[in-house]
Specification:
188 residues, mainly alpha, two-stranded antiparallel ribbon, 2 strands
C-alpha cells in the first residue's frame, strides 16, 4: 500500500501515476505534449480542489477517481469532453449519458430497498437474507457504495464496478438485482 500523508490519506502509487499518463496519451486531441501537460495539470487541479497540479501530489482515492473517469473517457471516445486550454470542471470532464445514469439510479434504488447502507450488515444465512445492525455504529441512511460495487464485481455478469458498465451491461445488471430483490422479499 502507498504511504500516508499528514492527513492520514494514502498517497498515489507509481502504478496509478503511470496509468494516468498512459490514459492521457490515448485521448484524441492531446497529441501535443504541451497541450497534454496543460490538460493534466488542470485535471489534477480539479481533482485536488486546487491543491496541486502534479499527479504525484494526488491522494490514492483522487488518483483512483481520475483513472476511472479517464478510462470511461477513452472507452467512449467522446472528444467533446476534452476541454483544451481551460480548466475542466468535474461535470465537463466526463459527460454522463442520461440513459446510463437512469439505469444506474435504478440499481441504486434496489440497493436502497435491500438496505445496503453504511453501518448495516447484510448477510445470507441459510439462503435467507437477513439484516443485522452493527453494534459499533448507529445505522445511517447513506448508501454503501463499496457494497454496491462489491456486488457488481462479485456477482454481476461483467465483474466490474457500477460506473464502468455501459448501457447494455446496466440492463443486464438491473435484471440481476431485481432477482436478488425478489429473493430477498421471498425470504422475509
Amino acid at each position: 500500500m502507498s504511504k500516508a500523508n499528514y492527513t492520514g490519506e494514502y498517497l498515489v502509487n507509481k502504478g496509478q501515476i503511470a496509468k494516468i499518463h498512459v490514459l492521457l496519451s490515448q485521448i484524441p486531441g492531446l497529441e501535443d505534449k504541451g497541450e497534454m501537460k496543460r490538460y493534466k495539470e488542470n485535471l489534477v487541479r480539479d481533482y485536488t480542489d486546487g491543491r496541486a497540479t502534479s499527479t504525484t501530489a494526488l491522494s490514492w482515492k483522487e488518483a483512483k477517481d481520475m483513472i476511472a473517469a479517464l478510462e470511461r473517457l477513452t472507452r467512449t471516445g467522446n472528444t467533446n469532453t476534452v476541454q483544451l486550454g481551460s480548466t475542466p470542471k468535474k461535470e465537463q470532464k466526463l459527460k454522463v449519458n442520461p440513459e446510463e445514469d437512469k439505469k444506474r439510479r435504478k440499481i441504486l434504488h434496489f440497493a436502497h430497498l435491500l438496505g445496503w447502507y453504511e453501518g448495516v450488515n447484510t448477510s445470507s444465512v441459510n439462503k435467507k437474507a437477513t439484516l443485522t445492525m452493527s453494534s459499533e455504529q448507529p445505522p445511517r441512511r447513506k448508501l454503501d457504495m463499496e457494497q454496491v460495487n462489491g456486488w457488481c464485481v462479485t456477482y454481476g455478469k461483467y465483474k466490474k464496478p457500477l460506473n464502468d458498465h455501459c448501457s447494455e451491461e446496466l440492463s443486464v445488471l438491473i435484471t440481476q438485482i431485481e432477482k436478488v430483490y425478489k429473493a430477498y422479499l421471498n425470504a422475509v
